[in-house]
Specification:
Low-confidence stretches: 1-40, 383-388
Oligomer: single chain
Number of helices: 7
Length: 388
């Protein structure tokens, strides 16, 4: 049995060898067309000062939006009494388990401060930019507590910590003014989905309980994610932007990542429509997959052994064209075929409307766009049909 398994692996490796040259050639060709950008992210204290000098005042003052401290939670079963299947929710992986934050609560508070085992965490949502991000706020025992400050930078919310009164940009998780200027917070895994999939995939999750006040949690002051003609989808920009990138619609929902100092924005709906999108970011071979069970997009390193695999969706199943093995998009693990048990490395990011992300990060590479593997290269037949 063991000899047969070894033999199969050698056959597979030999078969894959002829594709290695093709893949490397493709990579070289694509790299020629990938533009070189100079990063617009803050790298110096002068860059941070530039953020502070260009804040936009709104009609909201500090304290107008009350953050949540010491949140309470209910079960999925209890929350189902007041949640609809299509209600937008945010999933955050915290040390004590999976937490679900309904958007209809977060839109009124925008920041939830967590303290778990003496470590602070913050969950943040900015409705004007559609930005969802969560961070480890413990900072070596400081355990920062955050509030919305009231001002905006390129439609993105400004945060203030109560510990030092430093100002932070939510999208970057970085302080740009005050005693902690230049400090950043590690990101946590977050997912943007709806109540139906979230409650089915995570039936034992903790669901944020509305604070005991008189907020109209059934009403969204900005519009509705269930109606296409409201702020979240229309072409209206309430606050001016210095830079408007027209590669995508202003409010396209994006999954945003930073990979080896390269910024990447993935059009979520584009990936959901195609099922899988294979692409390169510099030398990195990546694939974005639609996890239909949770209804989210996940990004994986598609390098398997020495070969960048190519993935396609056929008959609602994701397979690689090299071995025709089946892969689970929720885990990046092969569930059947000669690659069974193999696992892809996953990368995580956060969420934002395209206008807000690109205005702060104009150097972002976009999917669909440069680096995407041409469709015609995904039509190859499996190359190891004789493998058991």
């Amino acid at each position: 049995m063991e000899d047969n398994q070894v033999s199969c692996k050698y056959v597979l490796i030999n078969r894959l060898g002829k594709y290695l040259v093709i893949s490397l050639t493709l990579l070289c060709i694509l790299s020629v067309f990938l533009p070189s950008f100079v990063s617009a992210r803050p790298r110096t204290m002068a860059d941070l000062k530039q953020i502070g000098d260009n804040l936009l005042y709104t009609n909201l003052k500090y304290g107008s939006i009350p953050s949540i401290i010491n949140p309470t939670y209910i079960t999925v079963q209890e929350a189902s009494l007041s949640m609809e299947q299509d209600d937008v929710v945010f999933i955050v992986m915290l040390p004590n388990g999976v937490h679900i934050y309904p958007q209809k609560i977060m839109v009124w508070h925008q920041v939830v401060n967590e303290l778990i085992n003496d470590y602070a965490y913050i969950i943040t949502y900015c409705p004007t930019s559609g930005t969802l991000a969560a961070f480890d706020a413990s900072m070596k025992g400081l355990n920062l507590i955050f509030d919305p400050e009231g001002r905006l930078y390129e439609s993105n919310m400004v945060l203030i910590d109560r510990n030092s009164a430093s100002l932070w940009l939510q999208q970057l998780g970085m302080a740009f003014e005050g005693p902690l200027a230049g400090r950043g917070l590690p990101m946590l895994r977050v997912y943007w989905t709806t109540w139906g999939p979230a409650s089915r995939v995570f039936p034992n999750a903790k669901v944020l309980n509305p604070p005991n006040n008189r907020k109209a949690y059934g009403r969204d002051p900005y519009g509705s994610y269930l109606k296409k003609d409201t702020y979240y989808y229309n072409d209206v920009t309430v606050y001016p932007l210095k830079h408007l990138d027209r590669r995508l619609h202003k409010k396209t929902p994006m999954l945003c990542l930073e990979l080896q100092d390269t910024l990447l924005g993935i059009d979520i709906n584009y990936v959901k429509k195609k099922g899988t999108v294979n692409f390169f970011v510099g030398p990195m071979a990546l694939v974005a997959m639609h996890d239909k069970e949770l209804d989210v997009v996940r990004v994986y390193d598609r390098q398997v052994w020495s070969e960048p695999f190519l993935f396609v969706r056929k008959n609602n199943v994701i397979t690689d064209i090299h071995t025709n093995s089946i892969w689970d998009p929720a885990t990046g693990t092969s569930t059947s075929g000669s690659m069974k048990g193999s696992k892809l490395k996953q990368f995580f990011g956060h969420y934002s409307m395209w206008m807000a992300w690109s205005s702060i990060n104009p150097e972002t590479r976009v999917i669909p766009g440069e680096g995407e593997v041409p469709e015609k290269l995904l039509q190859n037949k499996p190359i190891n049909n004789d493998l058991p």
